[in-house]
Amino acid sequence: MTDPYFSVEYRAQVNLLPLEQDETVPDAEQFEADIPAPFRLISEVTRIDTHQARLLRNLDDHASELVDIINQQSRKIDLMLSYLLAGQDDPDCRYDTLSLGGSGFDFVPRQPMTDGQPVRIKLFLPEYSVAVYAYGEVQTGPDEQHYHCRFTRIREQDRDALIRASLQLQAKKLKARAEQRAQHSKDS
Q: Which of 55, 80, 88, 148 is most buried as measured by Cβ atoms within 10 A of its Cβ?
């Protein structure tokens, strides 16, 4: 089966907490109830920011000062949320992603993990105001250096936020590449 979402190389912090032997991935209703408050909060703020950005695009140039004020207020809220989310990060369970997308992420394990191992996930992308609480399944790679974690339970709005962040990352990389080509052409 092919992956319906593209991935982009990106280093983000993720907590992986292996489920206990008697623990299972909760059903959708229980999962929704179990999501920690800071993850709910940042998800709602991200949804509001996305809607707000659409509205701001429709304002004309005369409202540029208002747009600046709203963006500054949004930045203050993002800083507060980052502080709240820092309490959700467990350094003992922290890994760094190598790439990520809407279906999961690649990472380097600190110790061998079992293929198919279910995990609780806390994924942090503070610069994009994204924090995702989800469940996944570890898939071992062809070597012991690279593993993949596929989401098995994730809210759609969180998947959408990851996809938007991936697209923003890809756009930044493409823009930087175009600027490098332009600079190289200019220097030649």
A: 148
